[in-house]
Amino acid sequence: MRNFLAFLMASLFCIQFAWGQSNISTDHIISDDILEVFTPTTNQTNVELFEKYEAEVNLKVGFINPHDPAHISVDAEITLPDASTISYPMFHKETDTSNGHSTWGFRFAPRTEGQYSYVIKVNKDELSKSSEAITFEATSTEEKGFLHSTGEKTNFTFDNGDSFRGIGMNIAWEARLSIGDNPKYTYDFWFDLMNEHNINYVRTWVNAPWNLPLEWNDPNFGRYSKHEDVGYHPEGIERFDYMIEEAEKNGIYLMLAMDYHGALWVNNNDGWGNNFWNKHPYKELAGCENPNDFFTFDEAKRLYKNRMRYIISRWGYSTSVGAIEFFNEVDNTIFYAGQNVNEADVVAWHKEMAEYLISIDYHEHVITTSISHKEINKLFDIDELDLIQSHIYGNSQSITNNITYYSDKYDKPYAVGETGVSWDGSNKNKGLWEKDLKYSIWTSLFEQTPVLPMSWWWEDFEAWDSYNMFSLLREVTDNMTPKTANDFLKLSLTSTVSGYEEKAILVDKRDAHIFLNNTSNQNFTDFAIQVAGIPNGQYTVKVYDAYSYELLNEEEKSPNSSGRITLGIDRLQNGNGIYIAILNKHRGDITGNDDPKEVGIKYYPNPTNRVLNFELDPSMTAPKTKIQVFNTLGHLVLQSPFNKSIDISFLPLGFYILRLSDGAKVASGKFLKN
């Protein structure tokens, strides 16, 4: 009864509010029994894979709130090249108040080559109509596509099969103009700066009371005006468009944190005035009386799903959307006096939201959530959460242990979403903060994590002119991004001295990387280390000061018959570190196999969920050709004589490696089973 009364109150409020002040509703212009769907318009008949396809459709229909799909929903019913169908949400763009006609947008990025067709389907209360069909063609591209989690703990994977590791920062919001933030701190300023310093990953807050406030109609801190109309805040929508465009221009992948703990705080728990529960829009719109109602009330959950639907419909097309994070530090909504939030309700809410997001997200973005430092029972066990996160302050030495602990316990990738010398930023020692972040990134590079630790203190690092610290680290990150976890092998080191921290990794069976860090209160000079497990070949060895990036030495080396290389180290002082790159000079296959000659192959559709079709290279002999399919662990999962198509419907979802060989020639590639 309480839920029903809350829903009734919220519905009556929305109707009254819309009638009184709305300039986007059309119910007062068009009768309830009218629904006309005009032919969609677009100037695109061909797009490359992963490119934005955009169309719009005009409707003659009465509605109150265009952002409420329970009242009016507009979707593109799409037939994909493999003849399967999906429903993809659309979004309201504008309303002509002179005649009540409204324009709705369709943004989509194809992931497989071939012909697409779609009709626009409109459901308004009891009315339903569809448009004429529109077709377009998706062609090949050099672009990599969307980021996905395939279960690999070391990296994310693009649609084309390439691996990715994120290195970046939190940029949680733009300048809060009324409290003295530097007005130059806008997304275009930050993303230009990230691009200049080769940063590829940024975590930002969405729908905060002062940043991209889609649901907060009376935002704080001066950037956004008060919104006195039904639906999402138009300035928040416009700013979101701008943020995505800036990310796309600068090659930035965004982790969108959809909500933050302070939005549910009853009390001022951190002393920064982050308790926004009394202003939370769901108190009025969903009838929530306490923070736990946010997670349990049907209407509150429906509103959250509506917002996810809108975000997918308007911005889900963008390959710059790298991950969707349901909550920032959701544990902080629970473990404070006065919150009265139930752990099990939080877990059930995450499960429900993840399942819903998957159901509407054709592009399969990475799904995540974060805790500060207190685990929530069974939260990270949710299968639909691709990435798990915690935040580590004041203890960078624990980061590698946390990576191992979480990724092993839950058998999924883990990242440190926020880090720093302290959570409150009270110590402003530039050198200390720079070194702490460098250490956090260096040590994490040698662990299985797809996103390296991200500092929370983005403004301080800019004021200190510290972003040049990412130059070498980005280069090393790219070199230490493996194809799979099997291509990320820990190596054994021996040394003539002891007492320092050491890490060594072989990446893609090719290059070795070593990190030595000395916190022993003693200095080491003129000692030797030996690294085992190096493949045969000639190597360039570069030795860097890990914190100043000074190149200390460069030489040519080859391993002995046992696969060992011995290196002399001039000095490793207390409080300092060394990074060593052992780079194979031959950039082709160094496994020592006499592989057949590589030739091309055409296979489609990709992704696929049932059948994979082949067109064999004319130089290959079909009767002698064998088809092999390997999973990302290198295990053979399918083998057959050549056929023009194979059934892969029985394979689990994920990426696979394809190999066709007739003994003299070989063709290979990667495909996604979805």
From TrEMBL:
In the record, which residues are listed under signal peptide?
1-20
- Domain Secretion system C-terminal sorting: where? 604-670
Q: Does the keyword Signal apply?
A: yes
Keywords (A to Z) from UniProt: Signal
Q: Does the keyword Disulfide bond apply?
A: no
- Domain of life where this protein originates: Bacteria
Q: Pfam families under this entry?
A: Por_Secre_tail (PF18962)
**Name the UniProt record assigns to this protein:** Putative secreted protein (Por secretion system target)
Organism, per UniProt?
Answer: Sediminitomix flava
